[in-house]
Amino acid sequence: MTRSHAWLAAAVAAVALGTAACSSSGGGSASPSSAPAGLGGLVPVQLPGLQKHAAIAPTTTIVPAAITADGKFIYALAQDGVIPVDLATSRLLPAVKTGEGPRGMAITQDGKTGYVINGPANSVTPINISDNIAGTPIPVGHFPVEVTFTPNGKTAYVGNGLDGTVTAINVATGKVLKTIKVGSGPKTYPADIAVTPNGKTALVALRNSDKVVPINVATNKAGKPITVGLAPFAIAITPDSKTAYVTNARASSVSPVDLVKHKALPPIKVGENPGAIAISPDGKTVYAVSDYNFEVQGTVTPIDVATNKAGTPIKVGVDPTVIQIPADGTTAYVLDQASTGITPIDLATNKAKPFVGVGVGNGHISSMLLAPDGSMAYVGRFAATKQGAPPLPAG
Fold first, then answer.
1. 124 contacts 102 by C-beta, under 8 angstroms
2. Span 289-316, pLDDT tens digits
3. Which among 44, 146, 243, 263 is placed 20 to 30 Å from 32, CA to CA?
4. Inter-residue contact 347 to 333 (CB < 8 Å)
5. Is the CB of residue 183 less than 8 Å from the CB of residue 197?
6. How does DSSP classify residue 339?
7. Cα separation of 168 and 34, whole Å?
8. CA distances from 319 to 2, 7, 364 (A)
9. Predicted local confidence at residue 38, as pLDDT
10. pTM of the full predicted structure?
């Protein structure tokens, strides 16, 4: 799984086509007179060699939220919806209006339907991917923050951050199946949801607690909360659906969870502030990203699934927030947000390869998505003002 900063989910400062309609701050290293205005856009990066292409819409703030199953379009968060980016022609298409304060988007595995989270509007909006027509917003709980689909695309699960619930939705009909109580309001904050590859269990991380909650997909009933470490942040599940690995942001650990017995195993010590986590396609190794802050060099800790032993931490850049592994399983790509670049990791040796910068001046990186076939990485950037300073994230 990939996780970016909590503020990034809300960083949908007004995105007008061809301009960065954002407030400015005084941070950064470039001087106001020397920094160019066009620091934003979407940067395509060829994999595995990490050759950078010209940025798409370089004067526009781009926060990539989802990529289609065929790898032809990316959806970027906008003020009241999403903007499709045609990757073949490097064009921004007309915005799709979905609702107030979009925070994220997910697309079904068959590539037919996308759901956009409208945080302040307490809803999600379905989009027909074939024609980019938005459907009627579906009311959910208080301030939705996460959405994911079952592998068969039949059910969506929406985590409602401020009321401790998960909303199950029938994707075919757009009707709410059930509101599932998993926590106790904002004190628990159900902010990450992962569904097992076999489609039987949805596991919910309650961010402001030390618990994850399993949901039976067949019945949409919550099981007994499972105690992990403090502030469970992100979840990765093995391909056999037997074990989940949960990063505990304020415990500097990863908790393996036996999904057959619904029991947490002893935590595995990793670096400070672990956030994003991913698992190799063969299910043999988990990679946990640490030093999730703006100050020090980050690390990625490999964990052997067979033994649940941590290997030697791999040094990456400052503030690593995203890790993704293509299906060929040869390389992991880590987005170092404060370093404004990508660190590739050779998974055969667990050694970092040379860092490749994708930022310009003091432009802030927003997020990264990989093409489904692993051929490209797409890195979003916050556009800078004419004074050269990055914009403040909205919210």
1. no
2. 998 666 678 999 999 999 999 999 999 9
3. 44
4. no
5. no
6. T
7. 51
8. 14, 14, 12
9. 57
10. 0.89
First to last CA, the chain: 24
Q: Give the integer Cα–Cα distance in Å for 137 and 172.
A: 14
> What b-and-e string marks burial along 27-65, b requiring 16 or more CB atoms within 10 Å of the CB?
ebebeeeebebbbbbbbbbebbebebeebbbbbbbbbbb
Contacts of residue 298, Cβ cutoff 8 Å, sequence gap at least 6: 271, 289, 290, 291, 292, 315, 316, 317, 318, 319, 320, 334, 336
In this structure, are residues 185 and 210 in contact, taking their beta carbons and an 8 Å threshold?
A: no
* Burial of residue 125 (number of CB atoms within 10 Å: 0-12, 13-18, 19+): buried
Higher local confidence (pLDDT), 267 or 360: 267
Q: Is the pLDDT of residue 27 over 50?
A: no
In the chain, alpha helices (H): 6-9
Confidence of residue 385 (pLDDT cuts 50, 70, 90): low
Q: What is the pLDDT of residues 229-282, one digit of tens each?
A: 999 999 999 999 999 999 999 999 999 999 999 999 999 999 999 999 999 999
282 touches 292 (CB < 8 A): no
Query: What is the predicted pLDDT for the residue at 24?
Result: 26
Average pLDDT in the 36-55 region?
Answer: 86
Per-residue pLDDT, 212: 97
Q: Dig out the tokens for 7 from the structure.
A: 């503020």
Q: Which two tokens stand for residue 12?
A: 């949908």
For 6, phi and psi rounded to 5 degrees? -60, -40
89 burial class (0-12, 13-18, 19+ CB within 10 angstroms)?
exposed
